[in-house]
Amino acid sequence: MRELQDLQLLIDNAVTQLKYPPYPAELYEPIYYILSMGGKRMRPALLLMACDLFGGDVEKALPPALAIEVFHNFTLMHDDIMDNAPLRRGKTTVHERWNQNAAILSGDVMLIEGYKLMMQVEDRLLRIILDIFNDTAVGVCEGQQLDMDFETRNDVKIDEYIYMIRLKTAVVLGGALKIGSILGGADMKDAELIADFGENLGLAFQLQDDILDIYGSPEKFGKQVGGDIISNKKTYLLIKSLELADEAQTAELNKWINAKEFDSQLKVEAVTGIYNTVQVKQCAENAMHEYAEKAFEALEKINLPEENKQYLRDFADSLMVREH
Amino acid sequence: MRELQDLQLLIDNAVTQLKYPPYPAELYEPIYYILSMGGKRMRPALLLMACDLFGGDVEKALPPALAIEVFHNFTLMHDDIMDNAPLRRGKTTVHERWNQNAAILSGDVMLIEGYKLMMQVEDRLLRIILDIFNDTAVGVCEGQQLDMDFETRNDVKIDEYIYMIRLKTAVVLGGALKIGSILGGADMKDAELIADFGENLGLAFQLQDDILDIYGSPEKFGKQVGGDIISNKKTYLLIKSLELADEAQTAELNKWINAKEFDSQLKVEAVTGIYNTVQVKQCAENAMHEYAEKAFEALEKINLPEENKQYLRDFADSLMVREH
């Protein structure tokens, strides 16, 4: 089996070889720009990993892997407009560096270019692969819409939240693994199972991210502690705390959520205090373990040699053991 | 052969039967909304027409025809954001009625839904059809980008303008005819020829539109005379006039183009005066006839019974005989 880092390097290299027309410049330059920002290339690497695990030719799976990466960056380009984000990975976002129209239209053409790359598969797999890609793409759009809807709602329930992060984040991981496995020769049963593995692992990973916002060490994760609290992000912790809180705690939470001006540190301390009192960290960890467990259950059912399953287990562990 | 109006009615009916999930509402309601605005459904009707002319089953070609219509409306939804347009066909645009984010994301999902519809073809045609659809879609994005680029330029040349309207407008007409012909059983040679016919007819039609802005009768076309002049739209007439104008005429044209405040009627009269002096109408008509001629030349080479070619000739004539 190829190391995940090797696969990521393979993607990095292939990304730099993507070529688009020179003209119109404002349409194509933002594509190079956003792709050059890098990132972990986790989604395309997962696609290659699944292909490799099922005995497929990783090189032949590169175009669909790039399709997933181009698609993912299309969603980032449009999400940044919608979130009014000035920066991504420390760099100016496309709509800020060029303009909003360039970001809309470049994103549109990236989605089409994603399809073109995804179509570089054998004829007999074309429809199967594109069906998965379509479902994945629609799921991500639905997830983004729900995420925006939740921003203006204070009555989001835990199951709605899980539904949203499944669509917005987890479905692409499952889809990438599913496509990769089929390219590697997996049958539909195993393809569904590895998708199930990826989706549940994605959910567990997102919940871990929610937990680490408060309970992670900032030195280790390079993020400001409580960033989600400061921006009132509807995380598992906040939604569940609002469920668990008594009347006084609810009032206190709402006071901080509705405060237009506040001291960030005080807000983080106060909200974390409530989180601690209602013991929401334990709830979130339970949920995280539940989804990780579902991921492992799906994994066990996959028809692969033990060695390959161990590779997937190690990969899952590597994602989930971040100390907090 | 089926009448064009019948085909348009078939599309109208099929559009009302498109079903999307009820949730998230802000993602899917704008799709119903923009599709309900109607319009002539010319693009999907052309697809069905070509399928019919080559002896195909029009009913089976309905999903790809709908794909073209959904795709076209995706471009309208995003174009309206980019053009900051408050109205379309007299109705509030999606970004105004909902918000900009809903218009971005609904448009994105429409593009994906377009692919899903376009994929409803026989396996053996899937790649061929999708390749044409990809090329068409990329062309439209490039055309829209160029159109926006031209807004801020005063040195656009005629060949650049033709290149832009070919991509923005004509390529979809050619693409729709090409896809329809293949679904109807045409070989690639005839498919290319009918695409060529459609593309050149589209160019001729766009040039006619440019001419009618000034020289059409407002009662007949329901448009304000000189709307393009008032908004400084880079039409064939304006670009060619800037080429033909002497120093004084150029200064006069630029004065009106750069004027921040002006009396609309005076501007239209003054610019039309220059158009008349440099005899740009004749140039535009020559160009229009040239492209119409190219369309007819392609048509003659298509391997179809005389009766079917006559249908296409009549169709082309019906588009081009609008009195002006």
TrEMBL record, chains A, B:
Alphabetically ordered keywords of this record: Isoprene biosynthesis, Magnesium, Metal-binding, Transferase
Domain of life according to the entry: Bacteria
Sections of the chain in a coiled coil: none
Pfam families named among the record's database cross-references: polyprenyl_synt
Cofactor(s) essential for the protein: Mg(2+)
Entries under Gene3D superfamilies matching the protein: Farnesyl Diphosphate Synthase
SUPFAM superfamilies assigned: Terpenoid synthases (SSF48576)
PANTHER family: FARNESYL DIPHOSPHATE SYNTHASE
Protein family according to the UniProt entry: Belongs to the FPP/GGPP synthase family.
Protein name, per record: Polyprenyl synthetase family protein
Species whose genome carries this gene: Mucilaginibacter panaciglaebae
Lineage per the UniProt record: Bacteria, Pseudomonadati, Bacteroidota, Sphingobacteriia, Sphingobacteriales
